[in-house]
Design a protein that fits this description.
single chain; about 600 residues; alpha+beta; Rossmann fold; Elongation Factor Tu (Ef-tu), domain 3; Alpha-Beta Plaits; eight-stranded antiparallel sheet; six-stranded mixed sheet; 31 strands
């Protein structure tokens, strides 16, 4: 019955204990046996286990008998905490009626805590504040309760204090979920409408669709219609999410589950699509998700051109499981055919690269990440440039603009000085700070997105000794003095290393790039000049010295002209070699260009 169903997700800042809490809930409800249990049960990807972060939202169904003897079906969706995966969070929220907002008892309210709360409020979710890690010696529950009341405007009487590590307070939390999270409102007797929130590809069964039934019922043998794709399928299996997929007879309004319907092509399933009955379809689809807007762009090429088709198939599969990934075909003179991809941030880029290399066994070359610039030409036409190769001729440019973000940084007040210097170093503007606790301050500033995507987050963690938290939202485009910097290796332009940067940064960026390339490119039998240039003007240079064979080793004693003749012969050979020799640039050299050295 819908009144015995509770759909909720766990939202929090990074490392506040979402996945550990999910583990305790699975154990407390008996969903997983002690023999089968291992830490981070819902983080199934190898990369998630290694990095200790959640990348994909994961759903699981738990059966819970409350203290009054009633049995409830609890559908939990565990979400990521990193700002790069906020799109996963927004999709999870659309499938729930409630959210557990987890806050660290030692670190308190942080930037992503506030951002995730606002997302939950936009979806009209019932938010249950949970203070985690009360077992830590540094836990300060009273101070965190004050922050919840002052910063989040929430009632402290509703706060549940737990330790996800020891399990303390988890039974009280389960009772609070049953009592405070509202039951779903959908009716079984209406035409079927179910919202797709995720999907995976099974090599034996085809596409496995994850969805939430909003109205009606769905069962095996049902003829269904995907409303956005316009495709018809016959349901082969429906079921709940346990630790493994658990088939069942049918799913009704309010339930969360999966469906297998012999869907062979990944393009036919889109996150946010509405599933309805083919015989008696719903009149209108459910509201979809907001369109994802990538902010970081990079080109991905296979190391060997034979792997191009494999890369295309791998991106198609990955796109099914990662709706925020956007890509299109490109070609380069030096690197051949590849794909221009859009990402939500640099961590998202790293994760996609690692998944392509691990899950699909591909060797890849990635170009330097860039953001999307807006260029107004002298003929008043406007072009959006996310690839430096497409940057227009400077003679025809009237105005260049770059994207700005509104950054929010929450940290202890003792780090105001170093963080202010970091913001000013990255061309920050409109700087403000506001005390949000006795010793905690929130700094807001407008920053160019291009200055943030590389290593701003790492630098922030470094200067605040790990206590600084960072969140941002895209604001608008603002005029900026931008130039395209090219890198020439042995007098040949390497397109994949070109960058669009602010003019004030151009020389320092070129010097740094040339220095890093000099250290990474192997030495040849001839000198290799590495140059940074704006148009025809060289602004930096490094030289990789030639390997030299000692051709005079056999010449002992005798006339000096014998040695000189051999050296001149070697010199002529090296000159000829330099004319025809090509320099192979290793993949690590492309990544080395991105390293900043202050």
């Amino acid at each position: 019955m819908p009144r015995h169903i509770r759909n909720f997700c766990i939202i929090a800042h990074i490392d506040h204990g979402k996945s550990t809490l999910a583990d305790r809930l699975l154990q407390a409800t008996g969903t997983v046996s002690d023999r089968e249990f291992h830490d981070l049960m819902l983080d199934t990807m190898e990369i998630e286990q290694e990095r200790g972060i959640t990348i994909k939202s994961t759903a699981v169904t738990m059966l819970y008998t409350s203290k009054n003897g009633m049995e409830y079906e609890l559908n939990l969706i565990d979400t990521p905490g990193h700002v790069d995966f906020s799109y996963e969070v927004s999709r999870a929220l659309a499938s729930c009626e409630g959210a557990l907002l987890v806050i660290d008892a030692a670190q308190g309210v942080e930037a992503q805590t506030v951002a995730n709360l606002y997302k939950a409020m936009e979806q009209n979710l019932t938010v249950l504040p949970v203070i985690n890690k009360i077992d830590l010696p540094s836990a300060n529950v009273l101070e965190v309760m004050g922050e919840i009341e002052a910063e989040l405007g929430m009632d402290v009487d509703e706060v549940v204090c737990i330790s996800a590590k020891t399990g303390e307070g988890v039974p009280d939390l389960l009772e609070a979920i049953v009592a405070k999270v509202p039951a779903p409102e959908g009716r079984d007797d209406l035409p079927l409408r179910a919202r797709v929130f995720d999907s995976i590809y099974d090599p034996y069964r085809g596409v496995v669709v994850y969805f939430r039934v909003v109205e009606g019922r769905i069962r095996k043998g049902h003829e269904i219609l995907m409303m956005a794709a316009g495709e018809e399928y016959t349901v082969e299996e429906v079921g709940h999410f346990g630790i493994r997929r658990e088939p069942c007879a049918e799913l009704s309004a309010g339930e969360v589950g999966y469906m297998i319907a012999g869907i062979k092509t990944v393009e036919d399933v889109r996150s946010g699509d509405t599933v309805t009955s083919f015989e008696s379809p719903a009149k209108k689809p459910l509201a979809g998700y907001e369109e994802v807007k990538p902010v970081v762009f990079s080109s991905i090429y296979p190391v060997t051109s034979e792997d191009y088709e494999d890369l295309a198939a791998a991106l198609e599969r990955l796109k099914l499981n990662d709706a925020s990934l956007i890509y299109e075909k490109v070609s380069s003179v030096g690197l051949g055919f590849g794909f221009r991809c859009g990402f939500l941030g640099l961590l998202h880029l790293e994760v996609v690269q690692e998944r392509l290399e691990r899950e699909f066994d591909l060797a890849l070359v990635l170009t330097a990440p860039t953001v999307r610039y807006r260029v107004t030409l002298t003929d008043r036409s406007v072009v959006m440039v996310d690839n430096p190769v497409d940057y227009p001729d400077p003679a025809g440019i009237g105005l260049t603009e770059e994207p700005y973000i509104k950054a929010s940084i929450i940290m202890p007040d003792r780090y105001i000085g170093p963080v202010t210097r970091l913001i000013l170093d990255r061309r920050g503007d409109n700087y403000k700070n506001l005390y949000v606790g006795k010793k905690r301050v929130e700094i807001t500033a407008d920053l160019p997105l291009g200055e943030v995507v590389y290593d701003f987050y790492d630098k922030l963690k470094s200067v605040t000794q790990g206590y600084g938290s960072f969140d941002y939202e895209i604001e608008d485009y603002r005029p900026s003095d931008l130039v395209k910097v090219d890198i020439l290796v042995n007098h040949e332009k390497v397109e994949a290393l070109s960058m669009v940067v602010h003019r004030d940064r151009a020389r320092s960026w070129a010097v740094n790039a040339c220095r890093n390339l000099r250290d990474e490119i192997p030495r040849q039998q001839f000198k290799i000049p590495i140059q940074g240039a704006i148009g025809g003007q060289i602004i930096s240079r490094e030289t990789i010295t030639a390997l030299r064979k000692d051709v005079t080793a056999k010449c002992y004693g005798g006339d000096i002209t014998r040695k000189r003749k051999l050296l001149e012969k070697q010199k002529a050979g090296k000159k000829r070699m330099k004319m025809v020799g090509s320099v192979a640039i290793p993949q690590k050299a492309f990544l080395a260009v991105l390293r900043r050295e202050d």
